[in-house]
Amino acid sequence: MASNKDIITSLDIGTNAIRIVMGQKMPDGRLKIIGAADTPSEGIIRGSINSIEDAVSSISETIEKCERMTGVRIDKIVVGISGAHIKTVASKGVVAVAKANEQVEDSDVERALEVAESTTTMPNYEILHVLPISYNLDDQKDIKEPQGMSGVRLEVATQIVMALSSQVKNMTKVIYRTGVDIEFIVFSILATAEAVLTAKQKELGVAVVNIGSATTSLAIFEEGNILHTAVLPVGAGHITNDLAIGLKTSVDVAEAVKRDHGQAISDGISKRDEVDLHKYSEDEKKGSYVYKKDIAEISEARLEEIFSLIKDELKSINRDGKLPSGIVLTGGGAKMPLIVDLAKETLELPVFLGMPVDSNFPIDKLNDTEYTTALGLVLWADKNMESGGNFLTDISAIGQTTDKMKRWLKSLWPSA
Prior knowledge:
Helix content: 25-40%
CATH architecture of the domain at 4-84 and 165-190 and 373-415: 2-Layer Sandwich
CATH topology of the domain at 4-84 and 165-190 and 373-415: Nucleotidyltransferase, domain 5
Order of helices and strands: EEEEEHEEHEEEHEHHEEEHHEEHEHEHHH
Number of helices: 12
């Protein structure tokens, strides 16, 4: 049986499903994926907890499934967080280089990031990540790593990722009630990027877009660094709701019809092709037919809205039509037929389906867009573990944020 210190376990809490992936660090340094489990979500709406008891039950069931599969007891977990409550804002920090020889050291970078963090506090929000985008040192602009360079004035441009305190607290309470400790909380789209993007794509310029049930998250990379992140309050579940209204049927029937007949482009579908809703539910009258073209048109309209919102995000940072590696689509919503074609047409960029970069997994279900976040959380944690448990080192370079967040998380449970 594997030693727990060699184990990394991730938890992806989605609106439709709870997913867990377990990896084992091998003696030669390789990461081997040894387990994966999922169960339907209960108590989760739009990525947020709305029933503690139901959420505890769903997560506990998924943990037990993974433990049975691997024979390893899960005692700590890396958790992904997303949802419409996540805010990302730009912030800058400026400091004077401390050393008399005017050489930039790690401590100067940390102080600059601390200043950027301290000027961005918002009531009722907790900072998850301080993501450096670029540095300026005196008149030298857009520096990637200023350590060792000479100068007097160091400035850092950052993206600050924040989560609503109440949502973090509720999620923490739920996870602790399952008997598992939280290793750290990670903004999900950053982890997803680890699973589906290559270093070359990040260098050239790329956006990863995760179409979930309730929200769509995106992260834009350029020159190897994070450039912009956002969470859009619309997802694939909105297509289901639209179909339920448009076809005058239940949400369950609408979801099944979407999976079987949804299509991102309606052109080419005959106006005479029909679907019998009665075969999906006894509650539907016999002969309750709807047109396939209507199903596709409803799906297409909502997806066009999602892609137009993504285009607005690209415009906001002057990257519309300017990402050489294009858009990588992932998440459950990315499985709809012809979605890549519609995205190309709307976004006017190369578009690809985001499957795991390393797809040699013994577990078939991992080769699926729905599992990219859970897998990415394990990969992201593994990549950053050498820093002694500070999972933010690679992206944030600011240990204080990590330590503060860990202390805050631990302070929640005893008093909860």
